[in-house]
Amino acid sequence: MIEVSGLRKVYEVKGRKAVVALGGVDLRVREGEIYGVLGQSGAGKSTLLRCVNLLERPTEGTVSVAGRELTTLGERELREARQRIGMIHQHFALLSSRTVAGNVAFPLEVMKVGKAERARRVAELLELVGLADKAKAHPGQLSGGQKQRVGIARALAGNPSVLLSDEATSALDPGTTQSILALLKRLNRELGLTILLITHEMSVVKAICDSVAIMRDGLIEESGTIPELIARPGSRLAAELFPLPEPEPGTVTVTFTGQADEPVVSRVVRKFDVDVNILGGALEEVAGVATGRLLLRLTGDERAAALTYLAERGLLVQEA
Ligand SMILES: Nc1ncnc2c1ncn2[C@@H]1O[C@H](COP(=O)(O)OP(=O)(O)OP(=O)(O)O)[C@@H](O)[C@H]1O
Q: Keyword Translocase, does the record have it (predicted)?
């Protein structure tokens, strides 16, 4: 759905050294998934997101969304293509002089949608985000979470196939963050909306993302589906989601996704002549799947056979 290839963005600032915000980024977001780009401040996340709808012109590389290569389009075609790419912002970017309904109607006015159809569509969008009773309110009378719901309704006005989210929950408290993330997940499921979001919070990735790219210094360090990354030896995502003590020689790190119901450790002890000592562990719900990592010391004559048994059960076994 979104294909970014060889993307470079260099900011030339007069009298200062040029800043390489993106140093050659490839990204592939599949239709219907929620894809998170995670990174510290300055990693290049906003630049990447703004290049996806060409708010920012890449210095090099190509961007295609829903099969259209955006970098080759003229201004008019680009405006049309952008109507199918919604965007939501950290600070909501609402027009304070307009009512909630007026804010949602704004893109429809730009698209020259007739008055009656506009009113129908605005009512439908406000219903979708749970704000039907706030149509006449002004943004100043709303909570942060309600403002972001207006932002989401406005972003969906043009029936986009893709939604770009620029730190949409960073200005919200934890409870409100969860309700906005749940709304995004519902829109993803019900409308088949593909979502590309940027965030500096692992909790956002953990709550709703199917795939993730970790960015640092304008480059992607690792990317893939979350189960893929958790199972990848040396993955930074796995280390950050499941921090474990430094493995000492002789210890074993065991990663499991979705097999949390099986008592594998007690089975290993019963089946094989081994002792198991749990040195550390973490269990998390990741995108709705129970996932965990354990640091074990396994000793005994049948150690090798026990490790093979764990690997055969689909667990990732890494010896220190
Ligand atoms: N318009 C600009 N002119 C010059 N440099 C810029 C511009 N926009 C961003 N940069 C620089 O590009 C680099 C990447 O910035 P970017 O905003 O994309 O990172 P980020 O990961 O989104 O960080 P943050 O979360 O703080 O916004 C930074 O070094 C930043 O200072």
A: yes
The verdict on 204 and 276 lying in the same domain is: no
Q: Which DSSP string do the residues of 201-225 spell out, in sequence order? A: -HHHHHHH-SEEEEEETTEEEEEEE
Examine residue 237 and state whether it is found in any structural domain, yes or no: no
Ligand 1 atom showing the smallest separation from residue 200 Cα: 25
The residue whose two tokens read 């958790």 is: 230
Helix axes 303-312, 264-271, angle to 10 degrees: 140
Q: Which domain holds residue 306?
A: 242-319
Contact present, 247 and 319 (Cβ < 8 Å):
no
Is residue 195 a contact partner of residue 34, using CB atoms and an 8 Å limit?
yes
Tell me the CATH number at 314: 3.30.70.260
* The dihedral sign for the CA sequence 151, 155, 158, 159: negative
pLDDT tens column, 227-281: 888 878 788 888 888 878 788 888 998 888 776 667 788 889 999 999 999 998 8
Pocket (CB within 6 angstroms of ligand 1)? 11, 13, 19, 21, 39, 41-47, 200
Which residue puts its alpha carbon closest to atom 1 of ligand 1?
Answer: 11
Q: What is the Å distance from ligand 1's center to 202 Cα?
A: 20
For residue 169, report the distance from its CA to the centre of ligand 1, in Å. 19
